[in-house]
Amino acid sequence: MFGTFAIFSNDLAIDLGTANTCVFARGQGIVLSEPSIVAVNRVNDRIEAVGTEAKAMVGRTPGTITAIKPMRDGVIADFDAAEKMLGYFIKKAHGRRRFVRPRVVIGVPSQITQVERRAVKDSAYRAKASEVHLIEEGMAAAIGAGLPITEASGNMIVDIGGGTTDIAVISLAGVVYSRSVRVAGNAMDEAISNFVKREKDLLIGERTAEIVKMELGSASPQLMRREMEVKGRHVLEGKPVTVMLNDEEIREALADTVRQIVVAVRNALEQTPPEISADIYDRGITLSGGGAFLRGMDERIHHETGVPVQVAADPLSSVVLGAGKMLSDFNLLRKISLD
To answer: In which element (H, E) is residue 279 found?
Structure first.
């Protein structure tokens, strides 16, 4: 089954993320990267938009249209919406050619249950995939980041995505330790929304919270103070208002979420065998995922653990690039697949 992988050009690798879905086509590279959102018409159950177009509708839809996020905490929360979204992305990745039944490699959180694993595979099969193979996101991210995972030495990757933070320690193409913490980018957005509501009496939407995170968010003190105006609805008065936010306030808002990620990294180091710990200290920890862009995240983890930290060359694409490499290396896929 694996041996036939290399001769098919329709094969796809998919990073089915809580916030974004990336698709890698064998021989072409990354062909699609869009938000994991589906806009559905509740009257006729028809898809109005998927991905980027659907995200533009979030918070702005009329009563007949609902913007759905099929993924929650890295796993499928809405089976039907996930199937429709996957089908749309697969068709779009193949230039909307019909009758294409690709073989697919999908990255999933390390602590995904058997039921959740089956939901991912079933959705892909119903979206017209001919074969589906699952690999842990931590392993995929390590491969995509260019870590020498097949060597007899320890490598540690921390992939901070939208719904989960996946931590993996890898040696000899095997997972020595893995943990998936359901605290990541979306939890940061929610923490900012709650902070602004509590401290500023202002209600803001998901998109605004995400913008605030990108503009002002940080995990450790920064040299330059930053501020921005944020518009929303006053909690009590119900009218549109504008408030000023600064990076220190947002760092306070994100403190608990960042702390949980740092604690998970420290726990991983504590449970890693001594020889591999020594390798990690020499090689450092690699950060990937959208959370790697949070200012000072690498400094914070280094300060808390004493281990050098570097950010992957292409943090957002590490998982899908790693899964993509499996499309032409079926021997390695056989070793690391969750099948």
So the answer is: helix 274-283
pTM of the model: 0.88
Q: What is the mean pLDDT of the chain?
A: 90
- Using DSSP bridges, classify how beta strands 227-234 and 240-246 pair: parallel, antiparallel or unpaired: antiparallel
What is the token pair recorded at 36?
């994991």
Q: Which domains occur in the chain, in start order?
A: 2-140+318-336 (3.30.420.40), 148-183+259-314 (3.30.420.40), 185-253 (3.90.640.10)
Q: Which long-range contacts (CB under 8 A, 24 or more apart) does 292-297 make?
A: 292/160, 293/214, 294/160, 294/188, 294/213, 294/217, 294/218, 294/219, 294/254, 294/258, 295/217, 295/218, 295/219, 295/220, 295/222, 296/218, 296/219, 296/220, 296/221, 296/222, 297/160, 297/219, 297/220, 297/258
pLDDT in tens, 121-154: 998 898 888 889 999 999 999 999 999 999 999 9
Q: On the CB side of 288, how many CA atoms lie within 13 Å of its CA?
A: 30
How many whole angstroms separate alpha carbon 239 and alpha carbon 118? 46
For tokens 């989960």, name the residue. 164
d(CA 281, CA 155): 10
3-class state of residue 232 by DSSP: strand
Q: How many CB atoms lie within 10 A of CB 231?
A: 11
